[in-house]
Amino acid sequence: MSHFLIEDHVATQLNQGWEMATIGPYRVLLADVHGTQCGGINPTPCFTASVWDADESVWRSAGAEWE
């Protein structure tokens, strides 16, 4: 379980590890999460990518579909 404090906002995410990356102008939170979040089981590799939206004070992420 990790807790992320930005300004006066605390967000919590159940994960098995995380790192920050820079993609273009964005700082992106990459988190290793439980495989069930990707339709698998525990050992299934599964990651989320989120960015902080300072204007709305929320984390933004998407579950894009691969073709």
Description:
This protein has no helices and 6 strands. The chain has 67 residues and is mainly beta. Strands 3-4-5-6 form a 4-stranded antiparallel β-sheet, with no helix packed on it.
Short note summarizing the structure:
The protein has 67 residues and is an all-beta fold. It is 0% helix and 49% strand.
Query: Total number of β-strand segments?
Result: 6
Beta-strand residue percentage: over 45%
* Spatial separation of the terminal alpha carbons: 32 Å
Order of helices and strands: EEEEEE
Dominant shape:
globular
Mean pLDDT: 92
Low-confidence stretches: none
Helix content: under 10%
Number of helices: 0
Structural class: mainly beta
Strand order of the largest sheet: 3-4-5-6
Properties at a glance:
single chain, 67 residues, mainly beta, 4-stranded antiparallel beta sheet, two-stranded antiparallel ribbon, 6 strands, 0% helix, 49% strand
